[in-house]
Amino acid sequence: MKKNYREGAIGAGMDEYERAAEELKNLVGNISESDFVKIVDAETKDEDCRSVQTIVSHVINSGFGYANYIRDWFSIPKSSPERRLISLNDFSMEVDKMLAYTSETLQDKWEYSDEEIQKVKMVVRWGPQYDFEQLIEHAIVHILRHRRQIEKFSFSGKISIINS
Asked: CB-based contacts of 15: which residues, under 8 Å, 6+ apart?
């Protein structure tokens, strides 16, 4: 299958975001419904990290949030869904919706120059200020960190991953 790569730094970031999301979808697609909803870490203070379901819901909700920071900067209307828990059945489709929303947000910005990228500054709710590219890089690594977290649940025997 031929892959169409986007141009520019922003385009490359979106391509990698989609790749990270695909890896997460493949991993979660091999988890049973019972392990998906199972409370794996009842001790954590972070309610977004108690189960695979809360983790992936957090990843999707955050993805819409990252796109909304960019939409705010560029005065693009927002239409993201309310934060909610995502079912295993809806997970893949919801990831695809989040990616489509992000791609739509970034349309016509793929080939921004370094200077244009650095002019776009967003202060995020957890404190730091990111430029355009840094926010996209954060979104990619956010998925990767939580994919790793789910893999660790499996490696520690807290959940089972089919075909792992």
From this structure: 5, 6
Print pLDDT tens along the chain (164 aa). 567 899 999 999 999 999 999 999 999 999 999 999 999 999 999 999 999 999 999 999 999 999 999 999 999 999 999 999 999 999 999 999 999 999 999 999 999 999 999 999 999 998 999 999 999 999 999 999 999 999 999 999 999 998 75
Pairing of β 121-123 and β 129-131: antiparallel
**Length, in residues, of the chain:** 164
Run of H or E including 149:
helix 132-155
> b/e per residue, 124-143, with b = 16+ CB within 10 A?
eeeeeebbbbbbbbebbebb
Quickly list DSSP for 34-100: HHHHS---TT-S-GGGSSHHHHHHHHHHHHHHHHHHHHHHHTPPP-PPPP-PPPHHHHHHHHHHHHH
pTM of the model: 0.94
